[in-house]
Amino acid sequence: MLSRWAILGLGVAFVFVLYVGWRTWYLSKPGLRSMLFFRPCKLLSKETLVEAAPDRLAVRRFVFALPGGDMGEPDVQLALGEHIKVRGAGLLPFARSYSPVAVRRGEIELVVKIYPADGRGKTPAGVSSHLDSLQEGEEALLSGPYPPPFQRVAREPGRKVGIVAYGVGITEALGVAWGELPRADEVGLLWALRDRSELYAQQELQALQDAGLQVRYHFSREGGGGRLGPQQLREAFPWGPVDSSGKDSEHAQEVRFLVVGTKAMKRETYAMLASAGLPCQRLLKKTFGMRKKTLGMRSVGDSYRQAPACPSEALGGGATPRAKAPEGASDSVCSA
């Protein structure tokens, strides 16, 4: 009769064999892989969107080839705010999440704010500075998509969708906006920045406006704008106020919001939405379950291709024109 230790050893060996088999199968597939499996991706191009200044960080666009010369379309659902991870340099490097602004056959495109180098890649700032140090033809280690396979992003549909993006959070907002335009009756975007010098991606935003997106800006350092508050949110999203029953009211059931920024910014903004009398039910929620590759009957890429100048086709080519927010606007919230 086998001893207790022998049975335990057989159990461990069985689990190990299962893991090796699963890992071999999972990594046999081309393209990006999730579950913190990083693969080298060659940098195809690097472009400056916002120049660095004493009070402003640089923002750059990076286009990477998929690993191993894979020419398929990356399985990253931009409409659900999915992201990838990029590993920094050095021993035991830090990995940071980034939302792609475009996925095309054989390519994936990131827009990254460049923070000063810190800790040889062992901090979020170190990852962006590592990317900035790359030259065309060099490689970065990428993994994705995320959330991982046993977690998914659930979409809570609504007739009206409001998106609040802070700074470089516009990268996630672009994909989500494209995904919502064919499904919601009204989609609005409020992009909060310090001033006009931080604007970029105007070609992409113009394509979204042509497809029906309502775009507004909040400049905290211009026209006495100050910090974004409930009043600016009410002006940007004139869909309320709701009654005292809050999210149980009929109006609240029609409206969804997504805030893209730091965790602190998200908490503060959802609280401001509530104090502004706007329903603060969230558009996207993480939940456990198997990730789906399609939204309804169509893939995310297919729904993009029904709109002009879609992200999967048009976000990568050429330089992005300098932003042209309305110069004569006296209010801190400006319609594009």
From TrEMBL:
Binding residues annotated for FAD, in chain numbering: 96, 98, 111, 113, 127-128, 171
Residue ranges of domain FAD-binding FR-type in the record: 36-152
Keyword Mitochondrion among record annotations: no
Transmembrane segments: 6-26
Entry keyword Ion transport: no
Keywords, comma-separated and alphabetical: FAD, Flavoprotein, Membrane, Oxidoreductase, Transmembrane, Transmembrane helix
Cofactor(s) for this UniProt protein: FAD
InterPro entries: CBR-like, Cbr1-like_FAD-bd_dom, FAD-bd_FR_type, FNR_nucleotide-bd, Riboflavin_synthase-like_b-brl
One GO molecular-function entry: oxidoreductase activity
Protein name in UniProt: FAD-binding FR-type domain-containing protein
